[in-house]
Amino acid sequence: MMRAMSNPARTDVVQPQKLARQNGRWQGQVALAECERFAALVGRADDAEVDVRLGFSQDEQGHCRLTGHARADVLVECGRCLLPQRVSLDVGIDLCIVATDAEAAELTGALDTYVLAADEVSVAALIEDDLILGLPHRVCERRDECPHRPVLEYGTDEAVGEPETNNPFAALAQWRARRR
Ligand SMILES: [Zn+2]
Question: Is position 87 within any domain?
Fold first, then answer.
């Protein structure tokens, strides 16, 4: 983990605008627990870390751009069989950091934005949404291979249609709703 960042007590805190002016980079590990919303979705992985590589730059419009990767091995509950499955996530990061919601609204559709009113932010906060969006649509690769897929007594093909979501827990909720 790089130790030369802004705050010696929190080495995963960065100053994006400053780094962008310097074409700075950040590379290191972030504790999975720092990404609270993501950690809640992937369940037990207390000591797990996310490998992060980020590059900061200013684009032609003067926006602070953030590109890179976040990689993590996590356990994700299959929305169908409910068993935790090991998933190796490798998500690309490509964000434009803006100061206000209004700026973000101007860029909507062109770029993914991250609204940051302060000078500094944790790396965990910058990568968390992309980690969540990177969770697989289905954890068990093929329906037939899901080791404990539910038996539908009234089963039809329609009843086992694929959920239209990246969130395994939303998928679970949809599936439960169908069974009622
Ligand atoms: Zn499964």
Answer: yes
Q: Domain total for the chain?
A: 1
H helices of 75-142, where?
101-107, 123-133
Length of the chain, in residues: 180
Helices (H) and strands (E) in the chain, counts: 5, 7
Query: How remote is the CA of residue 176 from the centroid of ligand 1, in Å?
Result: 15
Is residue 154 situated within a structural domain? yes
CB 68 within 8 A of CB 140: no
pLDDT digit string, tens, across residues 136-156: 877 776 656 676 666 665 544
Full residue range of the structural domain in which residue 150 is found:
13-179
Condensed to tens digits (0 to 9), the pLDDT of residues 23-41 reads: 999 999 999 989 999 998 8
Q: Please give the average per-residue pLDDT across 48-69, as a whole number.
A: 94
Q: What are phi and psi of 149, to 5 degrees?
A: -65, 145
Q: Give yes or no for a contact between 158 and 174, defined as CB atoms under 8 angstroms apart.
A: no
Between the CA of 32 and the centroid of ligand 1 the distance, in Å, is 23
Please report whether residue 172 resides in a domain.
Answer: yes
145 C-alpha to ligand 1 centroid (Å) = 7
Query: How many angstroms separate the alpha carbon of residue 148 from the centre of ligand 1?
Result: 6
Q: How far apart are CA 69 and CA 93, in angstroms?
A: 5
**Can you give the pLDDT at residue 80?**
76
Instruction: Tell me, yes or no, whether 156 lies in a domain.
Output: yes
